[in-house]
Amino acid sequence: MNFDPPLQETRFRRRYQRFFMDVDPVGGGPEDPPLTVHCPNSGSMRGCVETAGRVWISDSGNPKRKLRHTAEMVEVEGRAARILVNTQRPNVLVEEALRAGIIASLAGADSIDREVSYGTEHSRIDLRLRFGDRFAYVEVKNATMGVGHGRVLFPDAVTTRGAKHLRDLMGVVAAGHRGVILFCAGRDDTRVVAPADDIDPIYGKTLRHAARQGVEVLAYRCDLGPERAVLAERISVDL
Questions:
Q1: Domain shared by 169 and 221, yes or no
Q2: Is residue 61 left, alpha or beta, with left meaning phi > 0 and alpha meaning psi from -120 to 50?
Q3: Do residues 171 and 119 touch, judged by C-beta distance below 8 A?
Q4: Are 18 and 42 part of one and the same domain?
C-alpha cells in the first residue's frame, strides 16, 4: 500500500475521546497550538500511546473536512517500533498481500470479495475467497499491543464482537469451508502474536477452541514507512 502523498512526520501530544489525537503542527513544535487529527481506532491503543514520540499523519487535501488529517502510525520512544494505528488499513494490506500471493496458504483464489454477510450470528467477513466450490472466510485483526521482546497481544480491550466472529468461523468450518483468523501485526518489531488473556479471557478461550475445531490462525508482520506499508512475513502465533 503506497501513501500518496507520503505521510507527514510530527510529534504526539495526546489521544482522547477515542477518535481524536493532538500532535505538533507539521513543521512546528511543542510551543505551538496543537493540530487535532482523526484517530481511526476504537481500541484502547494500550502499548501504543503511553510513550509515543513521532507520529505520521496523512493529509486528505480536503480543507472542508472537519479533521483534514488522519493519524496513521506512531513510534514508541526507546524502541524505534512503528505501529499502525489506523484500523482501516489492515484489510487493505491483507487483500493486497492475497492478490500478490504473499500469503501462501491462501494463494490461488478464483475471486476475493469484501464484507460478505455470513454465519448464524449475522457477522460480516472481512474477505471471502473462492476456490472452486469452496470458500475461505478470512477475518482480519489488527494486533498492536506490544509487551516486549517482539511479543504482541490481541485484543487491547474486551471484544464481544471478536468472539462472535470466531464462533461464526467455526460454523463455516463445520459446513465444509475454511475459516481463517489472520492477525495483521501492525507493529514492525513483532515476532509472535498471542491472545491477551488478562484483558479478555473469553476471547482467548474462544480462539483456542476455534483452533481445535479447525479454524486456521495466522499472523503476519508489517513493514511500515512514510511512503509504503506492506504485509512482510509470516510470524508465530502462541496459543
A1: yes
A2: left
A3: yes
A4: yes
CATH no. for residue 199? 3.40.1350.60
Domain that holds residue 53: 8-84
* Number of neighbours of residue 133 by Cβ within 10 angstroms: 8
CATH number at residue 50: 2.40.50.580
How many domains does the chain fold into?
A: 2
* pTM for the structure as a whole: 0.93
Alpha carbon distance, N-terminus to C-terminus of the chain = 30
Q: What is the CA radius of gyration of the chain?
A: 18
Residue 148: how many CB atoms within 10 A of its CB? 9
Query: 211: part of which helix (H) or strand (E)?
Result: helix 201-212
Q: Measure the CA–CA gap between 187 and 44, rounded to whole angstroms.
A: 15
User: What does each of the 239 residues of the chain score in pLDDT, given as a tens digit?
Assistant: 999 999 999 999 999 998 999 999 998 988 999 999 999 998 899 888 888 999 999 999 998 999 999 999 999 876 678 999 999 999 999 999 999 999 999 999 999 999 999 989 989 999 999 999 999 999 999 999 999 899 999 999 999 999 999 999 999 999 999 999 999 999 999 999 999 999 999 999 999 999 999 999 999 999 999 999 999 999 999 99
